[in-house]
Automatic annotation (TrEMBL):
This is Glycine--tRNA ligase. The lineage of its organism: Bacteria, Candidatus Curtissiibacteriota. Residues 5-335 form the Aminoacyl-transfer RNA synthetases class-II family profile domain. Catalyzes the attachment of glycine to tRNA(Gly). Keywords: Aminoacyl-tRNA synthetase, ATP-binding, Cytoplasm, Ligase, Nucleotide-binding, Protein biosynthesis. Pfam families: HGTP_anticodon (PF03129), tRNA-synt_2b (PF00587). It comes from Candidatus Curtissbacteria bacterium GW2011_GWC2_38_9.
Length: 433
């Protein structure tokens, strides 16, 4: 059975994810991405960006700052409402988020059921801009990237000749001082978000909401997550964020909780643009040429954390077989695409030939990164590559020296085929396409 502990252990020993500040005992809810984690996260972000921005002619990208004028957060309602209910166990004095306590309301630490009255706790990290620490210099690390999109709405409309419906997409860090962190990258305090604000005509809200629900669900499935592990869940009115009139989560069947949010899709209406226009005195409307008048668009927002998505991709790809553990990651997401091995490390002819093939493949951008491994025996090398999800391993053996062929081993079937070196790059390209 796939457990989170197995994923945490694999990702630590294979260099995907390390606890933050580990040599000092760590820091709650903060993780660092290791060499393979940065590749995997990068591939997830690229796949999202390609699907959302590059393949569509009505969505553009943005990269706004983490720090923003404090007025942004006052106006957006985050200072007032971006809070979770906090309760303290009267027995052990640990604090928890009241709305996600276990069903029996027993303290996850000491097992007692004796809580203080919940109080709302704001999740934004506060900081100061400049050398004076007073109210006027106060601001927050952004808890979502969306506000950077709303405050740049005018800039994008004026520079990009966009026509409604159109979207602005952004990938960037978000910070939330979560009361209870845990379940690995599922709930952390610093994380990357991939957010799209899709601006629409109000009367198209339902249609566009449905469209994005399907698009986002299909994205996860197209990258290998099994259909049966995904579902939609409509939020009840009491659950929705202060800005939303409708919210649907794409939920994943996590091993540590039955179903839980993977991605949120919300109808944020014209709440943010209207509030910022009023507070800033700037015109954040859109000129509807057909109707010949100004209007403030509604917005549909699909929003997902890179780390939360990465956790789902890893869990879904994790397989234990008779004599190996294998991450059956989609080739697009795999942190290493190909590994090249000389059959034996102590045969200079083999090593030289293998090096030339490694060089050949590293000139092909599509196939990068290519790993080189000449340690231990071939079985161990396959085992190591299976654990990190490398789709193909190329072995250079004695036959290579005779007929210029190599073997390609398929990660999922473990089957090997022999291919002429001059056809190798093309064959691999086809396998990845
Ligand atoms: P939750 O109910 O789980 O606290 P939320 O409803 O506050 O989440 P949203 O504001 O909808 O979350 O955030 C959008 C997405 O960002 C989530 O679907 C999730 O993928 C990611 N996300 C939110 N909070 C965290 C976190 N603390 N750690 C990691 N990812 C997060």
């Amino acid at each position: 059975m796939t457990t989170l502990e197995k994923i945490v252990s694999l990702t630590k020993r294979r260099g995907f994810v390390f606890p933050g500040s580990e040599i000092y005992g760590g820091i709650g809810g903060i993780y660092d991405l290791g060499p393979l984690g940065v590749e995997l996260a990068g591939n997830i972000k690229t796949a999202w960006w390609e699907n959302i921005v590059r393949k569509r002619d009505n969505i553009v990208g943005l990269d706004s700052s983490i720090l923003m004028n404090q007025k942004v957060w006052q106006t957006s309602g985050h200072v007032e409402s971006f809070a979770d209910p906090l309760t303290e166990c009267k027995n052990c004095h640990l604090r928890f988020r009241e709305d996600i306590l276990p069903k029996d309301k027993k303290c996850p630490n000491c097992g007692k059921n004796n809580w203080t009255k919940p109080q709302m706790f704001n999740l934004m990290f506060k900081t100061h801009i400049g050398p004076v620490e007073d109210k006027a210099s106060e601001t927050y690390l952004r808890p979502e990237t969306a506000q950077g999109i709303f405050v740049n709405f005018r800039n994008v409309v004026d520079t990009m000749r966009v026509k409604l419906p159109f979207g602005i997409a952004q990938i960037g860090k978000g910070f939330r001082n979560e009361i209870t962190t845990g379940n690995f990258l599922f709930r952390v305090r610093e994380f990357e978000m991939m957010e799209l604000e899709y601006f629409i005509f109000k009367d198209q809200s339902e249609k566009d909401f449905d469209y994005w629900q399907k698009e986002r669900m299909n994205w996860f499935i197209s990258l290998g997550i099994k259909k049966q592990n995904l579902r939609f869940r409509e939020h009840k009115e009491t659950e929705r964020a202060h800005y939303a009139t409708r919210s649907v989560d794409i939920e994943y069947n996590w091993p540590f909780m039955e179903w839980g949010e993977l991605e949120g899709i919300a109808n944020r209406t014209d709440f943010d643009l209207t509030a910022h226009a009023k507070a800033s005195g700037q015109d954040l409307s859109y000129f509807d040429e057909e109707k010949g008048k100004k209007m403030v668009p509604y917005v549909i927002e699909p929003s997902v954390g890179v780390g939360r998505a990465m956790t789902a991709f890893l869990i879904d790809a994790y397989h234990e077989e008779k004599d190996r553990i294998v991450l059956k990651l989609h080739p697009k997401l795999a942190p290493v695409k190909i590994a090249v091995f000389p059959l034996l490390a102590n045969k200079p002819d083999l090593v030289k030939k293998a090096r030339s093939i490694y060089q050949l493949l590293t000139t092909n951008y599509q196939l990068l990164p290519v790993a080189w491994d000449d340690r231990g025996n071939i079985g161990k090398r396959y085992y190591a590559q299976d654990e990190i999800g490398t789709p193909f391993c190329i072995t250079i053996d004695f036959q290579t020296l005779e007929d210029d062929t190599v073997t390609i081993r398929d990660r999922d079937t473990t089957k090997q085929e022999r291919v002429k070196i001059d056809k190798l790059a093309k064959t691999l390209e086809e396998k990845f396409s």
